[in-house]
Design goal:
Elements: H1 9-17, E1 24-28, H2 34-41, E2 45-50, H3 53-66, E3 71-74, E4 89-92
Parallel strand pairs: 1-2, 1-4, 2-3
Length: 118
């Protein structure tokens, strides 16, 4: 699968710098879970969402093999039906396009610490 080569470097930098601290996160268009699993490894309560059933199945297998707790859901990002609750941090690697009006769950931006280096 394309893009199955580890987490996005910008995300890694944000987490390793301390600008984003562990919180409840959602990864839109998560594919096989590369970013979601990285977040789970770093103490985040993470939900990954993708429309591709096969990608979600792989993400679940990868999480199980690594002993990580992550929630993976199949859903259409243009008409989200299976996601509930609020999230503190949203990951969208821009390969998936989701109109903001279609995803109205609150995301709290104060989790980004502007005083941290990075």
């Amino acid at each position: 699968m394309p893009y199955d080569n580890g987490p996005d470097q910008h995300l890694v930098d944000l987490i390793e710098s301390g600008r984003i601290r562990p919180c409840r996160a959602i990864d839109l268009g998560c594919g096989t879970g590369r970013n979601a699993l990285f977040l789970a490894q770093n103490g985040f309560e993470v939900t990954g969402v993708d429309f591709a059933t096969s990608a979600i199945a792989k993400a679940k297998l990868k999480a199980e093999a690594a002993g990580l707790k992550a929630n993976f859901l199949v859903d259409d990002l243009t008409d989200i039906q299976n996601v509930s609750g609020t999230f503190d941090f949203l990951v969208d690697d821009r390969r998936s396009r989701c109109p903001a009006s279609k995803f109205s769950r609150p995301v709290r931006p104060e989790r980004v610490d502007p005083n941290s280096s990075g």
